Each structure stands twice: as C-alpha cells, then as structure tokens.
Amino acid sequence: MTNPSKAKGTRWENAVAAHLRGAGHPEVYRLAPSGADDCGDLGGIPEVAFECRDRQRQELARNLDDANDRARCKGARWGVAVMKRPQRPTEDAFVLMDLTTFTGLLREALLSSRGSR
Q: How far apart are the two ends of the chain, measured CA to CA in Å?
C-alpha cells in the first residue's frame, strides 16, 4: 500500500518538472529521494536546488530553510521552494526564496539581458 502523502508529493514534483520542461527547460527531471544527502526534488539545473511542497499548511520558514539546505548539499548557488496553491493549477504555484537568492537571480538576469542587447 502506498503512503498517500508521499504519493501526493511525488505527483507535485512530477507536475513541477513537467511545467519547467514545457517552459523551455527540457533538462529538468524528478530526482529520487536520497535521505540525508538530499539535493532537492528536481535535477537538471545545476545552480538551483528545488524543494517542491504540496501541503495544506504552508510553512514558509521551514520550506525556505529546507530549500537552502538542499542547495548547500547540492553545491548549488540558489535554493527555491515551489509550493502548490490549493485548488490552483501548477503554473499558479508560489516560488519562495530569500532576498539573497532573489538578488543573485536578478543580477544574473540583468547581466544576461544586457549582454544580449
């Protein structure tokens, strides 16, 4: 018999991976759980560790801490939590990150856009 909570989490991780692939990131895939050395729920983007959460109660601080722990474990620059919004499609999920992560991503995006002009 399957654990319903685990199955729900797996469905969410697969949905987020599918959304990212559909948005132009074909390299994204779901990682198998790896216990103490957990590097996040999704692979394929080396600089980002993803922590995907589908829970009734949104625990922002815990989710963010887990995402940053996954990033440290993975050796990634950024950790983000992708949290499902109840009764909403995948694309309406919340993406949670700390200000340091946001600043780094913003800097990279601006450098990239300035370089392509």
A: 55
